[in-house]
User: Fold these one by one.
Assistant:
Number 1:
Amino acid sequence: MKLKIMLGVCCLYSVSALASIEWQTTQGTLKFYGDVEFNVDAASKKHQLTSVRTTAKKDFDAKDTDRWDVNGRILIGFDGLRELDNQNYAGFSAQPLADLSGKVNLDDAAFYFGHQNDWRIKIGRYEAYDMFPLGQDTFIEYSGNTANDLYSDGFGYIYMMKEGRGRSSDGGAIELTKYLGDFTFQVNAMIKDGTTLFDDNTYHGYKLHKDKNVIYLRPVISYQNGFVSVAAAVEHNLINNAYGYNDHNGKWLDQSKRTGYGLTTSWNSEGDFNKSTDGILVNTSVAYLDAEQEKDFTAGINSIWQGIGLGYIFAANDIKSFNPSYKGEGEIHAKGKYKLHTINASYLIPDVMELDNFDIYLGTYWSHLDRDKKQGGGDDNRYGARLRFKYFF
């Protein structure tokens, strides 16, 4: 047995010290590691303006966020890898997750195999390529399920190319990746119950009914050299009439037609993304969703310098139809156009008590809903602050 200090990636290109224990066996290397993340939160109001996560609870609900909250989780990781002299390899990753609600969930549970610097196939539960990196995202989104409960009626939808990315609680995925020098081609196919995308299985005020599973196909092409990373992607549900609802006349309306497009770029001043936090890191992303009775556009930019993170996200929702009898939560109760602005900031305090695997993050955000006056009600604001304790072992 040997103790080996490794580098772990948190969010995108944000590097922290991560210790792991490794065992060498006749069938390869086994690795054990952990990640502790606890938060102390304070928010302006109970309800949010958007369905974007601002809590580390795995059972996140945009309608039920406490003004004061202590939340978090402990991740335990088990990885296995066997690599031959001819560069063929196979491995697995399993990451149980325990949160403060007393529940035990799972982040990754995946098996993969391939040939180094050539190709790879992965199957199971995991996240595919991140098309909307948030940098030092202390208070914008917790890295949990990225395919469930993304849309909540009554709340603004910040579309981030994550509907087909993975980690669904009701399905799995298969990914094929091909490496060609600085270029990478990835195709992820996720099969799941499409209604789990919507909180309470409700969309535009109507209860959705599942007829069959969806298949999201998500091709990504990316390029990365020392300083610049660029990626473009599409995610599209291939199955028609997978889910929908019956209107007041009993007519079936298919709501499963969803296609998203995204482009993201990153630049770092160090010429090495593994060391980007030593200098300046800037991420920019845009995403567009063409869905049934809804069109959503999102653009974001964020940067990190010397442990200081700053970001801005703009979202525009164009809802073509909405149930006039909807009496649910939130601030969006009718069809129309809505704009959302979110500013977030964070500060990293590294190596707390001279422990290189213990960091503290200070985070804050402010969100503003700009609503067409024809929809009733005025503009609204939300803000909050977070103290995050991050410990790797």
Number 2:
Amino acid sequence: MRTRVGTDRKASPPREGTALLQGVASCGKCGRRMTVRYQHYKGTSKPIYLCQYEGIRNAHPICQTMVGDQIDAAVGELLLSTLTPLTLEVALRVSDELAGRVEEADQLRAACVERARYRADLARRRYLAVDPVNRLVADTLEADWNASLRELAEATEEYERAKNTAIGPLSPETRARITALAADFPRLWNDPATPMRERKRMIRLLVTDVTLTKTDHISVGVVLHGGQSHRLTLPRPLTGWELRQTDPAVIAALDELLEEHTDGQSAAILNERGLPSGMNRPFTRGMIVHLRNAYKLRSHRQRLLDAGMLTVSELARHLGIHFQTVKHWRRDGIITGVLANDKGEYVYPLPGPELVRPVIGRPRRSVLDPEYSATTR
């Protein structure tokens, strides 16, 4: 579990707002403290946790951003399920043990600093005692002094960094408040009259850090006082376009309908079946066209053409007649056409000799014939 970097700002005090983890949440990618932004919609507000440290200072893209309502709820449920007198007692004992080990490590690091300071002081005295005329020895002792000073600076920096990030022992007042929470916490947490600011204060009494990482899911690492850690895995909230996405079962039904129906006919059948669109509105021909293009579904016309059907122009060239004659023959029932789309276009199967034979020897009417023109409009 990644922890916050030492250069980050400390946790801010509880403020107003619905973000339960405000000032406590850390970025699981860079380790920086995450900030809070609120999204307001129809009188409600949702907390958004985002890591924008590098974005503010160096104009880099935002590291992570995620909706926080389900994260807050999951952390609250975790605390309610784990906060018992027994677990608190164990946690306090572990905290005491860790504090004792931290004190031992602090003493070791302080001893390292003292040894480095002693070597630096010894190198300084050797350099000051050398005869300035002996330049070779003086240069060597000066280099040794500079190296000792660098070691002292590194040891001091490491000591201060470890001291600032170490977990100190709990005060008696803090221990008493944590123990009292075992009985009062569930009642106070679930009380609607409890202000959000008070819930944030309770969180800070129990939780040291919450680390958030978003991939195809959201990973929440919770560290309690005393060192006990928990990891939660939450589903990633759906984006706006995913919430408006049409059900895959509806897309599969549309794909079947397009085998024998046009876009408008398919929309009517889907509405009769009571299948909803992504926006929960009745289907229209335009929506079917959009879905076909989005999911790369073949139109009814394309499916007929792929099956070997001919357009009116292709059939006219095949028979050596005018395309208006093809339309006239279809209306007279001489040849069969299949409706291809909602524009009234037809496609035709390749006619065999038995289909063309009835029209052989029939007098050919001119397109200028008024009777012919009236029937082909």
Number 3:
Amino acid sequence: MAGLKMLLLAAVLFLGGAKQVAAGTSRSQQCRADGGRCVSAGSCRSPSVAASACGGAGGAVCCNPSGSDAFARALELDGFEVGLRVNPCSNRKCLNWYRGEWLTDPATCTDKRRLVNFCETTNQWCCAPPCRRKSRCRRKKGYCVPRKSMCPSGRTRRRLCGGRMCFCCLPEWPVPSCPCPQNRVSVCEPTGTYSLAEGSCVQVHSPGYPYPYDNDASCSLSVVAPSYCRIIVEYCQVELERCPYDYVNVTDGVTSNSYCGTANPVGFTSAANTVDFSFFSDSSQVNRGFQASLSTTCFDCTQGPTYAVCSDTAITSSTGGLINSPGYPGTYPTFVDCTLTISAPAGSTIRFEYLAFHLEGSPPTCGFDYFQIYDTSLPSTTKYCGTTLPTFTTSSTNAVTIVFSSDKSEVFTGFSICFTVI
């Protein structure tokens, strides 16, 4: 039985594999170059790895996984089913039992239909309709597969899906581990937006995951982190209907990628503070779905640029940085009187964290040395000195001005301030 399946698959792959051989290169050389080896059809133990004919006598085939996978992708087929109890050339088998049709070109068996038989006598292929999920399969949270081996749980029911050699794959399936299991949100979340706080994470998944999604889904979700953060995206599982029928699109505003079928995408860090998911499924056939983990990596002012009051008089920043008094961590000089303006993008505000603060004098008069900070549109008369930390922590506009002054007498270590654009 395995030998017959092997011979039939070798014939299938010969049609697509021969086109990949470079001019002037023998099939056997090409096979070795692709990492395969030429063996008799019966010696390639797994039918899924027979790639193409090697040429020469004896009907040798190139046993090469990459070639087989490439051919399957080119035809976009569900699988190749072989029935051995009935003559594969029988009209009863193809037309009546499978409700299929004979084709001379297997590549024309598209639009979700399946190749289920090959007639060597006529060199024709039987192309059958796709599998259909019945309501009973849906209620049991299953989905249809054309082969039992394609069901990860190994639990299948035959009569719950429409179509010959179609099986309802039932839970429990193994679910890949995924970071952040405590927070989960569907890509079809009604609000359409999820706020991802600094230092937190979330799992974004297809509706119903880990159970199959439904047909005719069309929804999107925007995950938004604070403006000074970027989002790390890790894919835990992508198991959708084959391309291009169902897909998920992921974009960060700069790059955009769509995934479908069984994929293993590489994770990425967003270029901005937003990642958008769009999910679509058509009117027939579904699969497990997808799941991704999102976490934040946020701006650390101590790792950013450092500025010094008096040396720097104007800063334009979309992230933040560190501002020190002149000479810090040593003492600041006498007779200082200078200003520093910070400007951020329109619509932003600026947050301040005081890491060190020590000036001459005592509040509230601060008659000797002082630090003053205010929104550029709202001047402030509050001065800070001594070791009392300023109460100004977040601006109301996208620009602030810092004033620093020292007289001719005592000097201290001054200040170190972290600012973050939010």
